[in-house]
Amino acid sequence: QVQLVESGGGVVQAGDSLRLSCAASGWTFSRYALGWFRQTPGKERDFVAAISQSGGTTYYADSVKGRFTIARDSAKNTVYLQMNSLKPEDTAVYYCAAKRDFVVRVPSAIDYWGQGTQVTVSS
Fold first, then answer.
1. Are strands 117-122 and 10-13 parallel, antiparallel or unpaired?
2. Contact (Cβ atoms closer than 8 angstroms) between residue 94 and residue 6
3. How many Å separate Cα 33 from the centre of its chain?
4. Using one digit for the tens of pLDDT, what is the confidence trace for 62-110?
5. Average pLDDT along the chain
6. Distance in angstroms (rounded) separating the CA atoms of residues 96 and 92
7. What band does 1 get if pLDDT is binned at 50, 70 and 90?
8. Assuming Cys at both sites, which of 24, 65, 80, 92 could form a disulfide with 60, CB separation 3.0 to 4.6 Å?
9. Which residues, at least 6 apart from 91, have a Cβ–Cβ distance to it below 8 Å?
């Protein structure tokens, strides 16, 4: 059974850091590009960051570039999102996502989703 399980969300203050983790199971980790999306109430799910199957290429939304870092650990079947210099506008539910063979930035093209983890940044 395919599973993506996020952890690491919480409540922090502006300027703080947080690291999200997403543990994958039930499929061949190395065949999938991985990513993070986020969503606030009443809005669409937005692309945040993605990493290729090999981990050699990363992609970021302009709004997080220079502050967030995505990484994957094949030995642990886990993808991470290191978030630094957090801002109140980063407040959202963050979702881990997997897409076989290549990176996508469109939610409708994602193969698997995690359940989401809440990140709240207070000013």
1. parallel
2. yes
3. 11
4. 999 999 999 999 999 999 999 999 999 999 999 999 999 888 899 999 9
5. 96
6. 13
7. confident
8. 65
9. 40, 119, 120, 121
